[in-house]
Amino acid sequence: xxxxxxxxxxxxxxxxxxxxxxxxxxxxxxxxxxxxxxxxxxxxxxxxxxxxxxxxxxxxxxxxxxxxxxxxxxxxxxxxxxxxxxxxxxxxxxxxxxxxxxxxxxxxxxxxxxxxxxxxxxxxxxxxxxxxxxxxxxxxxxxxxxxxxxxxxxxxxxxxxxxxxxxxxxxxxxxxxxxxxxxxxxxxxxxxxxxxxxxxxxxxxxxxxxxxxxxxxxxxxxxxxxxxxxxxxxxxxxxxxxxxxxxxxxxxxxxxxxxxxxxxxxxxxxxxxxxxxxxxxxxxxxxxxxxxxxxxxxxxxxxxxxxxxxxxxxxxxxxxxxxxxxxxxxxxxxxxxxxxxxxxxxxxxxxxxxxxxxxxxxxxxxxxxxxxxxxxxxxxxxxxxxxxxxxxxxxxxxxxxxxxxxxxxxxxxxxxxxxxxxxxxxxxxxxxxxxxxxxxxxxxxxxxxxxxxxxxxxxxxxxxxxxxxxxxxxxxxxxxxxxxxxxxxxxxxxxxxxxxxxxxxxxxxxxxxxxxxxxxxxxxxxxxxxxxxxxxxxxxxxxxxxxxxxxxxxxxxxxxxxxxxxxxxxxxxxxxxxxxxxxxxxxxxxxxxxxxxxxxxxxxxxxxxxxxxxxxxxxxxxxxxxxxxxxxxxxxxxxxxxxxxxxxxxxxxxxxxxxxxxxxxxxxxxxxxxxxxxxxxxxxxxxxxxxxxxxxxxxxxxxxxxxxxxxxxxxxxxxxxxxxxxxxxxxxxxxxxxxxxxxxxxxxxxxxxxxxxxxxxxxxxxxxxxxxxxxxxxxxxxxxxxxxxxxxxxxxxxxxxxxxxxxxxxxxxxxxxxxxxxxxxxxxxxxxxxxxxxxxxxxxxxxxxxxxxxxxxxxxxxxxxxxxxxxxxxxxxxxxxxxxxxxxxxxxxxxxxxxxxxxxxxxxxxxxxxxxxxxxxxxxxxxxxxxxxxxxxxxxxxxxxxxxxxxxxxxxxxxxxxxxxxxxxxxxxxxxxxxxxxxxxxxxxxxxxxxxxxxxxxxxxxxxxxxxxxxxxxxxxxxxxxxxxxxxxxxxxxxxxxxxxxxxxxxxxxxxxxxxxxxxxxxxxxxxxxxxxxxxxxxxxxxxxxxxxxxxxxxxxxxxxxxxxxxxxxxxxxxxxxxxxxxxxxxxxxxxxxxx
Length: 1140
What we know:
Distance between the termini: 120 Å
Pfam families: BK_channel_a, Slo-like_RCK
Shape: elongated
Radius of gyration: 39 Å
Helix content: 40-55%
InterPro entries: K_chnl_BK_asu, K_chnl_Slo-like, NAD(P)-bd_dom_sf, RCK_N
Number of helices: 38
Coiled coil: 1051-1106
Structural class: alpha/beta
Domain RCK N-terminal: 256-405
Transmembrane segments: 31-51, 63-84, 96-119, 155-175, 211-230
């Protein structure tokens, strides 16, 4: 057999064992096998005991054959499980295997050696061969795994073990009395009585004379002394357990799906998550939520889950790292697994490390116990961006269905984007949070805002009716028919390539049925999304769709079961992939190809961590990127696999954690710069900027800080805040002034040292003087970050157990209030200096917003909640609990996280293959392309524009139709300034009612391909209408001209009216060209002025520098002259003193 054939044979053998193992792990199979095993064991035990009374019915060939067949069935089960097991040693040492060996091996050895395999007689050797079947009484211990309570399991185990011990002891003494005792010949039940008496009286009334019988009695007493206290102690421990949750088990049902929630679950996080999970907008189907935590719930969390609306929440106390506790919550049958993190952790790196290791442990458990073949989705929170990168790399291709929410990345991107689009925080928060219908409200602004809160983002299938239509046509049809806003699409090709596009404009939806087109819509409920998926379809098409995909939810669920993956690597092989080195393979083409593909996948996962590039968008067959190799790291892990002992695994996990904490900060940023990702997508300087060069003692009245953003505070990854404010799709960008009491670390500054116009002022927003030094008078936005200073002294006590440490690492209510108190003081300081400035504030606890509210607003908060206050509606407040709602929404809508990344960070203009044949409208023609060319940016970004004058005092729907049809811009909502209605503070209005009257105090939130120019205020005006009419006339003329040239001139008959129309069209064309030339001249003049302004600004800076340099020289000269005069005076004084 050749090497290739041998390898193929071994591979098939491993696959067969894997399939067998998964088959025997199924509950249905185990139930049948257990019932058969216990039935055969009962028959053998009963027959042996009955044969001690009347042996004649069983001393024949028929029973001998039947008895051998029963033993062969039991042996075949043991051999089958031995072959399919993954760990040979652990299976041999298991209680099930030991029982099988003790009861079956002696039987076959004796029967074969005596040549009595099919003979039964009264020979003592034959009787002993049947005697060992009494050990099979322990097989009834299998029934305890079908019990729910730990106490019942322990009681069952005690009864079965005691009964088996009594029967085995009685059988041994009975066997001994038949052949060794000369006096005592009693029935079997007498020996049962004797054994019970011996156990209870510790050997009293011994009537046996033989030494063997007495040795058996001594062994019986020793077993009783060992077994009874141990089992009783276990029972007492379970009974005396104070926690009801530590004894609770969940029994899953196919009719009711359940999810399992792990990690750090605080009161605020649980309340927000469950409120979203069980909201009626997600359907009325029943579902269960299982919480698995090592410690019992605190008083507040316990009272929360005991409320009637959360009756489907079940809390189980247990360690998620232990298989028995994972089995208690039926995690292998869960619909999804949710992992929450401590968002205010004092050690984010350790928190992410703990989350990643927990996910790896659970995935390893599911690999062994998930026999259904259905992929279980992971929805998890990661604090820092490098933690997200390491998670994707550590599991390689096992993250297809995982939703990873990087809290710091999303939070900082949202805060930064809010500086460009005020009100965005409220807009995004409302879209990812379900809301009910508003009550009768006297305030008009609150009613509009509340109605907008009811809209959410849904992903729905676009039916065949829209195939071949442009995206803008689809937007207009859906808005007219359903009053929903289609703002993006996802095109999937037959080879599973996917492309998400936000407002691609005039793109033609593919008419090929092999391409699936999903739409991202803003609508009120799921029923509307389902109606859209079957819009204008025939009855047969509807039945086919329901049969194949079902409703929108079924369609999304079907995505979990496609693309069966190949055999996954072990945990420690993934660890090697995590840090960029691969195991040496034989010099074969197949091995080398696999290694190269693995290297590409590593880089693609890295590039996916920022949401810039979707991994599946790249064709793995093309060498687009190469990952750097580091072959000398972690060589000691090569020989460690899943079958290693616990000590080796603990050592390996410690090495993982140490490596994660040391090197987690540098890889992702270096790779992005090395691949020119940031250079392609952001405004950068030509040279590295030093921190000292941009550190100023004061920027008051400085021309460097004009219309700038002040960032109060620092985070580890500042680049997440800088990127949205330095994206290349921005024509102009605001300067950024960092105000903090400590300078950025070398690592922090290394991330942003190539970005322009970033300055640092040492100080704090708690001091008005420091705010003035940051030139707050000229600032347009202020961003206040929540501090993270939490004392870690209490974590240093080694005597504390893990539960106490975990509980102490979670913020108490007082600590949350302390962090928010600093934020409140900063906010009030800024308001005193500049009352009308836009402030974006981060809060830890939503209840603390009350300290920033007036009396009337406080009443609104008490009556309707914090998210209905003017401060929140204006988009000035960010709560960390928003990420908990997003975590729940990612369970219902897997694509939501990626869509948010595109909205916040912006579209990246690149040459990427989509895998789908996309069509564009260009000069009235449809041109097919299979890729997005570098100069054809078809996806849009988020902007704000004022309401054009032509649409003021007109309904919103007119502006919507005009922007979509004429500008290929999709409006999403309104940011209504003070005085737009009865509001005194701005507020966001998502998808306003079509008849909402627009005012000059409204700002429109739009998705556009390019940043709208300042002339957007004149859109829809007379000049634009005239130009549009002339364009239409020009198109008519061109059409007539092309038609006339294609026909025979002899057949053309043009009447006088047509001649006049053609002449009029020519005249319109000439006038249009003149107007366009004038517009072009104006644009050139404006560009010239901008250039002159920039040159003037540079000259002013140079002049200022020269003046400062001249002043320094003058001061030096004056100081030198003063020192010289002082020296002369001093010398003269010395002379006079000497003369005197």
